[in-house]
What does this fold into?
Amino acid sequence: MFRHFLSAVVLALLAGPVFAADKPNIVLIFTDDHAYQAISAYGDPRKLIETPNIDRIAKEGVRFDRTLVPNSICGPSRATVLTGKYSHRNGFYNNTNSRFDGAQLTFPKLLQKAGYQTAIIGKWHLGSEPTGFDHWHILPGQGRYYNPPMNKDGKQVQHLGYVTDLISDFSTDWIKNRDKTKPFLLMAQHKAPHREWSPALRHLGHDKDRKYAEPPTLFDDYANRGPAVKDQEMTIEKTFTQLDAKLVPPPGINEEQLKEWNAYYEPRNKAFREAKLEGKELVRWRYNRYLHDYLGCVKAVDEAVGKMLKTLEDEGLAKNTLVVYCSDQGFYLGEHGWFDKRWIFEESLRTPMVARWPAVGKPGLVNASLTSTVDLAQTFLDAAGVPADKEMQGASIVPLLKGETPKDWRKSFYYEYYEYPAPHRVIPHYGVVTDRYKLARFYVPKLEGKADPDYWELYDRQKDPNETKSFYADPTYADTVKELRAELDKLRKDLKVPDETPKEAFGNLLVPPKKKK
Ligand code: CA
It folds into this structure.
């Protein structure tokens, strides 16, 4: 007994008390719907925007080129980050009827137990109240861009200003006023650049009425693929609202702000109305308006990142703070005629991620391994020297920050999307993703009876980088399909995916699919 006590003391001494000086701080800057195409470090051929501050994290750390999300939609992605688990293990499948079970184990809870002070500021979007945080200051639901109400440690507060600036200020103020005897975890989670993409007033006209280059698939005809790519509600052509197009002002904007807003939009909207555009010209006008607004939102996000990096420097924390910039998923900026996300296709599956930890990592690395947002929980725990929970389903990327990718690092990735047929419907699907291929099953769930349609597709990104063709029926791919099917079965088994998807996973709007015309 006494010996046990002694060895416990020795172990505790060896492990050392938790001092702010030796444990790294952790800052996750997490945005909503930020496409990697809209970060200059990733070099989109359209050269959409300069993001010097996000790029700086990549230059001084690692740019991850293939960070994939397990379920490409907001709430489920957040639940995955907190738990280090897929939707089918943390119970948060969709944005319509899922509510986060705050009693379950999360990485902030483990860090808190290990002596970290923990805070979450900005977008939460998980239904329940945050648990595992010493401080939280969150937007209700989706939140709004102008003058957002927020919830601060359980109390309603009303703010004046632009949401990205507010979240940025609250986050950096929290760092300045932190308990300096403890290491910290801060999750600074922006609403931007989520729909309706309302930029800060100072960024209106940032692009000087530029005409943006078009992606090669802006007018995709959806040939050579099954019905799923046609049966969706996310095209710039058909699903773009008045608010999306800024033909009406954003909610919450006050009179003074509206004057400035109108000064930019009104003359341009007047010209638009008079032009009476139709067909492709209408899509083109919307595409350019969309990019002005979306990229305007990104500009404020990049400024917020700059302010965060400067605050860490001013506080003498830059060296031993792990900073990760990441979005909850990728996004379409006109590819396939779309905005939104949800698909296993590259623009929505892949999210931008850059990370910097000067005390431990190497600068200027580029990593193309299959990483994921499901890895973040274990990464942060590993960085803090706190054992991860055995039920977590990712892997720590700390070795990758040092330029050492473990030999047994994943070569394939499991993806599954459920929500249907909520707004922006896309047909549920799951599949396996490798460096080159994607094999996926698409099906319309029915409460009873056989799914219809129900079919498989194979994508080959080497031959068809824009993913405009399924090779599933091509006999030359028969062996590939067979191998990928076996890999998919293995992943589903390893990740404990149930054979039968629970009905609630699809959300609360499940109705029989519309009859085809
Ligand atoms: Ca999102």
Summary: Residues 8-17 have pLDDT under 50 and may be disordered. The pocket of calcium ion is lined by residues 32-33, 74, 328-329 (CB under 6 Å).
